[in-house]
UniProtKB/TrEMBL annotation:
Catalytic activity as recorded in UniProt: 5,6-dimethylbenzimidazole + nicotinate beta-D-ribonucleotide = alpha-ribazole 5'-phosphate + nicotinate + H(+)
Broad enzyme group: transferase
Summary of the function given for this chain in its UniProt record: Catalyzes the synthesis of alpha-ribazole-5'-phosphate from nicotinate mononucleotide (NAMN) and 5,6-dimethylbenzimidazole (DMB).
GO MF, one example: nicotinate-nucleotide-dimethylbenzimidazole phosphoribosyltransferase activity
EC number: 2.4.2.21
Presence of the UniProt keyword ATP-binding in the record: no
Record-given protein name: Nicotinate-nucleotide--dimethylbenzimidazole phosphoribosyltransferase
Record's keyword annotation contains Transferase: yes
Organism for this UniProt entry: Tolumonas auensis (strain DSM 9187 / NBRC 110442 / TA 4)
Active-site residues (renumbered): 312 (proton acceptor)
Gene designation per UniProt: cobT
GO biological process: cobalamin biosynthetic process
Length: 343
């Protein structure tokens, strides 16, 4: 069983014209650095003379992980639910950074241990947390399919309502472990290069986390098959983010990727449908070991390097003003001709 994705690669047809427009702005060639690449990509995706950033929305998917019983995190699964309540109350880092940067925030229960009854929460529960990937497949095949579909549907609904930029964040105690497993499997790298300290675990916890990752990897039949990888070592929120990224690309809108965990989803999405990569922008390089290599594997140059290692979408929220700056210079900066400036 598999899902097919209907993603149009972004047309290269306008690439030269967009580059020309950027190069004719009143500045030395390339002097706006990564802002130029960002404008180029947004303009390519949008295919319109001006770049717009409409209803930019942060989607934070929450899910619990059976592997947290292995003490691979600083804290217990209970904190996932407590943090979702914190999101709903407006008190978490991501709430502050979305407020500071004028970004809408939606929180999705993709399958935390104990449900929360609150109208503001989007309920897309797959279960009460995944199974322990150290011992067995984290998810059932149907759970993977349902999670991908839930994510896809939400992204397409938001695009239909006028959003043209979706950013992705996550909350799930233990989820750097599945993200490391996904990285190791899809990039065919040793566990030790993919596993980091997440919330800040000790040396002995790190050793155990690497051992678990190796055990789980040995169980994956086809390491190059994103569906198989998700089933063995994925997570409900990781799978829904993957589906939502693919859904965003199907809808032709931009994807803003955050840290280590959402980049693992991006790797999966690009494996399901390589054209999805055309729609992705990368906010930052996290302090989590392995993130840099994952970004390189995706050919990504992240906008920021702030030493963030939190997730929740925080890096993506902080990067949004850079996208707005890219749009503003692209749309409104004078050209040599219009300003009468000669080199
Ligand atoms: C209070 C708190 C708030 C968080 N917000 C995001 N994370 C981050 O830490 C978790 C991943 O790290 P690990 O794999 O080590 O558990 C995820 O929930 C991630 O979003 C948090 C973690 C904590 C403790
Ligand atoms: O980079 C991330 O997304 C990250 C790093 C550590 C813990 N949680 C998330």
């Amino acid at each position: 069983m598999s899902t097919s994705w209907n993603i149009k690669p972004v047309s290269r047809e306008n690439s030269d014209a967009i580059l020309h427009k950027i190069n004719m702005k009143t500045k030395p060639l390339g002097a706006l650095g990564l802002l130029e690449d960002t404008a180029h990509q947004l303009a390519m995706v949008q295919g319109t003379p001006e770049i717009t950033i409409n209803q930019p929305t942060m989607l934070v998917f929450a899910g619990d992980h059976g592997v947290s019983e292995e003490k691979v995190s600083l804290t217990s699964s209970d904190v996932t639910r407590q943090m979702v309540l914190n999101f709903l109350a407006g008190g978490a880092a991501i709430n502050c950074l979305c407020r500071a940067n004028n970004m809408a925030l939606k929180v999705i229960d993709a399958g935390i241990k104990t449900p929360i009854n609150d109208d503001r929460l989007i309920i897309q529960r797959i279960g009460t947390g995944t199974r322990n990937l150290a011992k067995e497949a984290a998810m059932a095949e149907e759970e993977v399919l349902l999670a991908l579909e839930y994510g896809r549907r939400l992204a397409k609904q938001l695009a239909a309502e006028g959003c043209n930029l979706l950013a992705f964040g996550e909350m799930g105690i233990g989820n750097t472990t599945p993200a490391s497993c996904i990285m190791a499997a899809l990039m065919n790298k040793p566990a030790a290069e993919c596993v980091g300290r997440g919330t800040g675990i000790s040396d002995s916890q790190l050793k155990h986390k690497i051992a678990i990752t190796e055990t789980a990897l040995a169980r994956i039949g086809s390491k190059n098959d994103p569906h198989n990888v998700l089933q063995e070592v994925g997570g409900f929120e990781i799978a829904q983010i993957t589906g939502a990224m693919l859904g965003a690309a199907e809808a032709g809108i931009s994807i803003l990727v955050d840290g280590f965990i959402t980049t693992a989803s991006a790797l999966l999405a690009a494996k399901f449908a390589p054209a999805c990569r055309d729609y992705m922008l990368f906010a930052h390089c996290s302090g989590e070991q392995g993130h840099q290599a994952m970004l390189e594997a995706l050919g990504a140059t992240p906008l920021l390097q702030l030493g963030l290692r939190l997730g929740e979408g925080t890096g993506a929220a902080v990067a949004l003003p850079l996208l707005r700056s890219a749009a503003e210079f692209y749309n409104n900066m004078a050209s040599f001709e219009s300003a009468g400036v000669t080199l």
